[in-house]
Structure to design on (230 residues):
C-alpha cells in the first residue's frame, strides 16, 4: 500500500505530504554540496596526517630518536595533562551533538548554551595543549633537541590549527543564523560541524597513542610496517 501512496503524492501541491516531500528534497539538495566538500576536506587532512605518521615511524628507527614515554624520567609517563585535554575535546563533541538536536527542535536557548559550552571546552583543549608545550620546554624537551619532540610539536600544532579553524567556522554558523534565523539551515550546518569535531577527536586519540608510545612500541609498529629490521 505504501507504494501506491507514494505514486499518489502530488509534489506540486503546497500542503500535506507533497509539501513535506518538496521541503525534504530542497534540504537534501542544499546540504549535499557542503557535505561533499567537507568529506573531501577530511580526506585531504587524513592523507596529510597519514604521511606525517609514515615519516614519524621511519624517523623513530634512527639512532637520535628518543621516545617521550617508556622510562620513569620521560615526560609522558604521566599522561594526566593529556587525558584532561582529551576529556575537554570529548565533552565539547557531546555538547555539539546536543546543539544539533536542540536546533532541530527549534530551541534557541538550549542550542546557544550547548554551542557556548562547545566553544569554551574546545578553547580549554587548545589552552591545555599549550600548557603541555610549556611543560615540555620547562622539562628540557625542546623542539630542536630530539626528533620525537619536533614531531610532537608539529603534529599537535597542525591538529590545533584545524581545531581553531573549526571554532571560526562554528562562530560563522552562529553569525549567519543571527541574521537569517533559519533553524533548518542552522541544523544542517551544525550537523556538519559535529562531524568535523568527531573527526578531530578521533584524530587526537590516534595522535595521543602515537606520540606517547614507548620505543619498544615504535619498534614493533615499524617492523609491522616494514620500516625496521629485526
Amino acid at each position: 500500500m505504501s507504494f501506491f501512496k507514494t505514486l499518489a503524492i502530488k509534489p506540486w501541491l503546497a500542503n500535506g505530504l507533497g509539501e513535506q516531500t518538496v521541503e525534504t528534497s530542497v534540504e537534501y539538495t542544499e546540504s549535499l554540496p557542503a557535505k561533499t566538500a567537507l568529506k573531501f576536506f577530511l580526506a585531504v587532512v587524513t592523507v596529510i596526517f597519514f604521511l606525517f605518521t609514515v615519516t614519524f615511524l621511519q624517523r623513530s628507527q634512527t639512532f637520535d630518536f628518543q621516545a617521550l614515554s617508556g622510562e620513569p624520567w620521560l615526560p609522558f609517563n604521566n599522561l594526566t595533562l593529556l587525558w584532561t585535554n582529551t576529556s575537554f575535546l570529548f565533552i565539547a563533541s557531546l555538547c555539539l551533538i546536543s546543539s544539533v538536536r536542540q536546533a532541530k527542535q527549534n530551541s534557541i536557548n538550549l542550542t546557544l548554551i550547548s554551542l557556548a559550552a562547545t566553544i569554551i571546552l574546545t578553547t580549554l583543549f587548545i589552552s591545555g595543549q599549550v600548557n603541555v608545550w610549556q611543560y615540555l620546554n620547562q622539562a628540557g624537551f625542546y623542539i630542536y633537541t630530539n626528533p620525537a619532540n619536533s614531531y610532537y610539536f608539529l603534529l599537535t600544532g597542525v591538529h590545533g590549527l584545524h581545531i581553531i579553524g573549526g571554532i571560526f567556522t562554528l562562530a560563522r554558523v552562529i553569525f549567519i543564523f543571527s541574521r537569517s534565523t533559519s533553524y533548518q539551515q542552522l541544523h544542517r550546518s551544525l550537523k556538519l560541524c559535529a562531524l568535523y569535531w568527531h573527526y578531530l577527536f578521533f584524530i587526537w586519540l590516534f595522535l595521543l597513542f602515537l606520540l606517547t608510545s614507548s620505543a619498544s612500541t615504535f619498534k614493533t609498529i615499524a617492523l609491522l610496517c616494514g620500516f625496521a629490521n629485526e
